[in-house]
Amino acid sequence: MQVSQCGESEMSICSRPVSSSIDVPKRRQEVDMDELMAAMVLSSCPAVLCSTAPPSQSPQNSEHAAFRCLWPGCEKVLTSIVGIKRHVRTMHLNSCAGEYERCSRSEEDFYYTEVTSVSPRLLSALLILPQSLPLTCLQLTSPSSPSLSSSAPSSSDCFWQVQAEHSYQAPPPGLIVSAPSPACHWTTANSTHSKQPLHHRVRSVSVGEQWLQQNTPCRRVRGEAKKCRKVYGIEHREQWCTACRWKKACQRFLD
DNA sequence: ACTGCCGGGGA
DNA sequence: TCCCCGGCAGT
Ligand SMILES: [Zn+2]
Predict the structure, then answer these.
(1) Which residues are near ligand 1, the ion (C-beta closer than 5 Å)?
(2) How far from A51 is each of A111, A112, A113, CA to CA, in Å?
(3) So what's the ipTM on this one?
(4) Mean pLDDT over residues A208-235, rounded?
């Protein structure tokens, strides 16, 4: 009589050589580099951080536009370009307070950014990005929106939701739907899940870094079972299970 | 220092 | 696909 399913206990039932094939677990849906790159790029250029108007479009024509000073520590928001420029010039670049148009005309451009009222759609798009990234502009576009602060961390959660399956012997994705098996626990990289306001002024980690650590999906918690390496020793490597030999999750001594 | 293993890369 | 390994996290 044939037993057709060889799912979890590989060696007992499946008759093929132990080390024939293992397939690397696909753990999460890929967080694309695009996202990361976007984050990196954006973070490296504060002046355009929150510019919500497409570049081709002239900033003046948005009636609800506001302009925020990007000078470190300054939160000044003004409703006109002239105003914000003057602010930057006089408050921060006060080298030549007297003459307006002529001197260092472009310099103050680096120290303000346009902020318009953000549509919910755009807002949600922004929320996919690192939380800390749009933080500065989210703050002042809708300072009192309660849904913002609460939804920021969790909304991304559903995107990066992991499929909790890790065995090398895992059946194809069609078989496992999405029931997270109780047997497997992952450590979420950030268990306190940043409900805290996260003051952007005090931030000392780079945004890219931050984003990475918040989206570091999960890491299998280290089981206490001895694995092949420990059991057989380095010098008997050939007795290890394939996964261990390949420095993958051991498939012989499961946790 | 050692262990387990993810992610990535070479053939 | 098979195999190896850098590097990281946890012990
Ligand atoms: Zn093993």
Answers:
(1) A 228, 241, 244, 250, 252
(2) 12, 10, 6
(3) 0.95
(4) 69
